[in-house]
Amino acid sequence: MSTIDPLPPLRSVILKHDLSAQKSLGQNFLLDLNLTAKIARQAGDLEGWDVLEIGPGPGGLTRGLLAEGARKVVAIEKDSRCISALQEISEAYPNRLQIIEGDALRIDLSAHLTPPIRVVANLPYNVGTELLVRWLTPKQWPPYWDSLTLMFQSEVAERIVAQPGSKAYGRLAILTQWRCDARVMMSLPSEAFTPPPKVSSAVVHLNALERPRFQADQKVLEKIVAKAFNQRRKMLRSSLKGICPDIETKLTVSGINPTQRAEEISLEKFCSLAREINCYELNLNDLSP
Ligand code: SAM
Q1: Residue 2 located in a structural domain
Q2: Strands of the 72-77 sheet, one edge to the other
Q3: CA–centroid distance, residue 68 to ligand 1 (Å)
Q4: Given a cut of 80, is residue 233 above it in pLDDT?
């Protein structure tokens, strides 16, 4: 029996179901259930909330979420070997765990959840950033979720909360902070995982704002930021050249000196620039993200 529930310890679960970690699936498991319960608590109150979990693996974080009172956990796992282990958790928590076998990049997960919704996950490294960008750029805002509590490599966590002037500041910081409050909640050394990855990790908590911090067209902002940071060492008058007619004047009107570089520009200034640029005048061919 474990410390947080009547189920067996995770090491026994892994042995029983033969869940040797596979690198290709980004499998670095958390086996300390006190730690997974602590990560679950970083999401805030879970009672009365549906939780979406990506990549439950042998179920350490899933058990943390259920023990911490989540109304329902919807867990999507790509590795079919994990499903029988997860079914044992589902039996211990009747009607509170829905297991979906599949690829989180291919399934519309919102359909399985009832608001209010939190997303909590120890993400597979190979798809973590892609999933985050998708959560941050839905067709409609506010999104179906209220908060995201996600484990990333520390380097990615730093990029999410980065401020202008830092090396980590870029597209991910702007996309996140435009529509969310974001904080790093805790750091984890690589030894917390089995097998230990090469780098440390951190849990980031994002709360969706009711509306974006500054007005801007999502597509225009995304395109400007992608192009500006694609050549982050260049002056903006060069990196944004050709994006639309008369970019130098638009930069100046937005309070940006055309000789400045992308990493010096605040989110507010990027949004001002986006408002100066009409999406119809964007040279979309020139804007591979
Ligand atoms: N949540 C578990 C834990 O904390 O110990 C496992 C985390 S492990 C870092 C990532 C998990 O995501 C693995 O179980 C892996 O099989 C699963 N995974 C990888 N790619 C996936 C995908 N595209 N969709 C769903 N699950 C995926």
Answers
A1: no
A2: 97-101, 72-77, 50-54, 117-122, 147-153, 201-208, 180-188
A3: 21
A4: yes
The pLDDT confidence band at residue 287, using thresholds 50, 70 and 90, is very low
Residue 285: pLDDT over 90: no
Instruction: Report pLDDT for 283.
Output: 61
Neighbours of 44 (CB within 10 A): 15
- Res. 282: pLDDT tops 90: no
Name the helix (H) or strand (E) containing 237: helix 236-239
Say which amino acid occupies 289.
P
Q: How many residues would you count in the chain?
A: 289
Parent domain of 226: 218-286
Those residues with Cβ within 8 angstroms of residue 96's Cβ, 6 or more apart along the chain or in another chain: 66, 70, 71, 72, 73, 90
Measured by CA distance, the residue closest to atom 14 of ligand 1 is 57
Nearest atom in ligand 1 to 31's CA? 5
Q: Is residue 244 part of a domain?
A: yes
Ligand 1, CB cutoff 6 Å, lining residues: 25-30, 54-57, 60-61, 76-79, 82, 103-105, 122, 124, 127
- Say which DSSP state 164 is in: T
Q: How many domains does the chain have?
A: 2
The Å distance, Cα 130 to ligand 1 centre, comes to: 14
Domain CATH for 270: 1.10.8.100
